[in-house]
């Protein structure tokens, strides 16, 4: 018994169990495994990686300028990267984006026929405007399609681009001999000043209101006496028309005002690729230069050290004899030359010497596969197929190519809709406002009716190139089955091919009439009975 009536427990411990008790205690003291995030890092690799948490705007602000410079440098000095960017541009816009204007004007007094005629007139006039650099570009140098091309290129290397709109007065238009006043300027993001001031609502060169909406942009341009001066441009003019459109994919950094280059994530990869290529080339050149050597049994460094040791000693006569021996050997080598560049000549060698030819061992068998793997990572990031970037179609089949484009094409269409198409859409809206305001395109109710419904009337779809295919016959067979099963429409199929359905139907109708006048059947006319029945129908016609 101890104090307060407690009894100490007595435990019988067998002999020779002290070491077992220590081991048991050590096992019980080992920390137990727990289920948690980042728990599987026994090597400490993740612990060594520094990754602070900060806002997207801070990340962009810290990396944008340097990343833009590096991405631009790689595009200018690497044929692989420049070609990959060209492939992205080709997939995104092809020869240029096309508008598909289908307004719903039923509430404005238009019937279906008038609505269709109005849409055809607008599309025709806009094509003429967009394809004339003097009309669409403030500097009179680029067509709208070339600006779309520039947007893709700037987005890949700088992460964003800006379309700045201006309006020429009638006097200015008369000076240049042009008709329209709506003009576009494609501006690189480095001209938007990186400046932030909470006192005036300025964040990274963009003025914002309390809700975060853009009010104006602070660009920099050359002053009259040199240097750069600030130039603020309002986001919208007094009529509510867009004056500056920011072209970027905001989903990459949702809480950032500016963008970073598309290629930022693979800049290290590009540098590895360049280093690998340079090192491999240097090794191959060295092996090509040292294509042949002469192997001699005499030691060079040891012989000359012996000469130095004999010089000034009692064995000076021996050193002089050795020097005379080497002098005669060198004279013999001068007379018997080995030349592999200008005609192969191999003369006599000294006794004991061997002539060896070396074969190049660079690049090694794994060079091509490793180099292509680096390019695949670049292709994965920029949204292009690996085969189109590496130009290697080894082992490709119809199914593999189709699956490759099925994976990449949603990225292409998303980039087209979010980054490039807004420039064309805003240009169309501003141009249409001017055309109706100045009476060049008639509108029921005049400009007042249009302005009251401007947002609704100015809506337009933008079409890009069709998805590439490896087998046109299989593609058309699949299209036919979709149409027969009623899971698609001809209009949708035309849009997928990047063409306007109404324009195609109009052209086919005109061709059918021309063929009928000439006594022929149009290829689109289906005749039961094959070619023989088609010939019979043609004769009857």
From TrEMBL:
Domain of life, per the record?
A: Bacteria
Know the name of this protein?
Phage portal protein, lambda family
Region of interest (Disordered), ranges = 462-487, 513-541
């Amino acid at each position: 018994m101890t104090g307060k009536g407690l009894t100490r427990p007595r435990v019988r411990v067998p002999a020779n169990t002290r070491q077992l008790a220590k081991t048991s205690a050590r096992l019980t003291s080992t920390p137990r495994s727990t289920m948690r995030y980042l728990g599987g890092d026994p090597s400490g690799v993740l612990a060594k990686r520094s990754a602070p948490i900060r806002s997207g705007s801070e990340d962009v602000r810290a990396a944008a300028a340097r990343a833009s410079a590096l991405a631009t440098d790689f595009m200018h000095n690497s044929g692989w990267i420049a070609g990959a960017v060209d492939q992205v541009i080709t997939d995104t816009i092809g020869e240029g984006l096309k508008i598909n204007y289908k307004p719903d004007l039923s509430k404005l007094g238009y019937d279906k026929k008038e609505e269709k005629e109005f849409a055809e007139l607008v599309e025709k006039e806009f094509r003429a405007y967009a394809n004339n650099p003097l009309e669409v570009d403030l500097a009179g140098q680029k067509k709208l399609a070339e600006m779309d091309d520039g947007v893709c290129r700037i987005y890949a290397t700088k992460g964003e681009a800006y379309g700045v709109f201006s309006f020429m007065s009638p006097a200015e238009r008369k000076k240049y001999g042009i008709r329209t006043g709506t003009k576009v300027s494609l501006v690189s993001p480095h001209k938007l000043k990186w400046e932030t001031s909470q006192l005036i609502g300025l964040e990274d060169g963009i003025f914002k209101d309390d809700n975060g909406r853009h009010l104006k942009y602070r660009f920099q341009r050359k002053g009259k006496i040199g240097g750069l001066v600030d130039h603020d441009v309002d986001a919208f003019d007094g009529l509510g028309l867009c004056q500056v459109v920011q072209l970027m994919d905001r989903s990459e950094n949702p809480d950032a005002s500016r963008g970073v280059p598309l290629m930022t994530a693979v800049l290290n990869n590009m540098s590895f690729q360049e280093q690998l290529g340079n090192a491999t080339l240097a090794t191959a050149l060295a092996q090509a230069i040292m294509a042949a050597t002469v192997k001699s049994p005499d030691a060079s460094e040891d012989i000359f050290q012996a000469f130095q040791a004999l010089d000034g000693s009692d064995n000076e006569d021996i050193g002089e004899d050795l020097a005379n021996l080497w002098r005669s050997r060198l004279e013999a080598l001068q007379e018997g030359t080995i030349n592999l560049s200008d005609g192969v000549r191999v003369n006599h060698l000294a006794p004991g010497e061997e002539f060896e030819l070396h074969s190049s061992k660079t690049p090694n068998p794994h060079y091509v596969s490793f180099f292509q793997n680096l390019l695949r990572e670049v292709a994965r990031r920029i949204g292009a197929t690996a085969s189109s970037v590496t130009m290697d179609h080894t082992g490709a089949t119809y199914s593999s190519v189709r699956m490759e484009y099925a994976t990449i094409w949603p990225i292409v269409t998303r980039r087209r809709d979010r980054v490039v198409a807004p420039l064309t859409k805003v240009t169309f809206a501003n141009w249409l406002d001017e055309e109706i305001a100045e009476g060049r395109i008639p509108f029921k109710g005049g400009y007042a009716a249009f302005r009251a419904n401007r947002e609704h009337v100015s809506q337009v779809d933008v079409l890009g190139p069709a998805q590439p295919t490896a087998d046109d016959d299989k593609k058309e067979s699949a299209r036919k089955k979709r149409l027969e099963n009623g899971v698609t429409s001809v209009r949708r199929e035309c849009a997928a091919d990047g063409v306007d359905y109404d324009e195609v139907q109009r052209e086919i109708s005109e061709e059918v009439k021309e063929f009928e006048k000439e006594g022929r059947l149009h290829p689109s006319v289906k005749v039961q009975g094959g070619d023989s029945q088609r010939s019979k129908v043609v004769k009857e016609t």
